[in-house]
Amino acid sequence: MRSNGRWRTAAVGSYERGDRNISMAVLAELAGFYDVPVRALLSDEGRPRVERAGHLVLDLPAVNSLEGESPDQVLLKRWVQTVQQWRGDYAGRVLSLRGSDLSLLAMSLNRAEVTVMSMFREWGVLHATSSLAVPGSS
């Protein structure tokens, strides 16, 4: 599903997190793009929310220099490249992610979020500014 530049990933993410206000006209347009009722974009009913403190920042040079060819590392590299494509951001040295991104990556790896964070630490791919607190981690 492509919006031909109408919907930027960062802007939609800001609406989702509540970091940015959305007008009813824009909300209706976004609902039309996704072909869902406006109500589906507003309702949190029945959706569990996991609140996390901090943010996850990957060190891109460290990710790119991973020498192991484990399936997990290959998937991480491919996933990072995909996120860069979505965002149109190829020049950065870091990649800031949301907690929902970690959840998606953990599901892709078939591992718990805590395990994924441990792997990131072990591989040395977390940037110094990363401060995501994952429930269940020490």
From TrEMBL:
- State the coiled-coil residue ranges: none
BP GO terms, sorted: negative regulation of DNA-templated transcription
Query: What is an example of a GO molecular function annotated in this UniProt entry?
Result: DNA binding
- Note the PROSITE patterns from the entry: HTH_CROC1
> Which InterPro entries does the entry mention?
BldD-like_C_sf (IPR038099), BldD_C (IPR037664), Cro/C1-type_HTH (IPR001387), Lambda_DNA-bd_dom_sf (IPR010982)
Question: Which Gene3D superfamilies does the record cross-reference, listed alphabetically?
Answer: 1.10.10.1930, lambda repressor-like DNA-binding domains
Q: Which domain of life is it from?
A: Bacteria
Q: Where is the HTH cro/C1-type domain?
A: 10-41
Q: Which Pfam families match?
A: BldD-like_C (PF21179)
Name the UniProt record assigns to this protein:
DNA-binding protein putative lambda repressor-like DNA-binding domain
In which organism is this protein found?
Frankia alni (strain DSM 45986 / CECT 9034 / ACN14a)
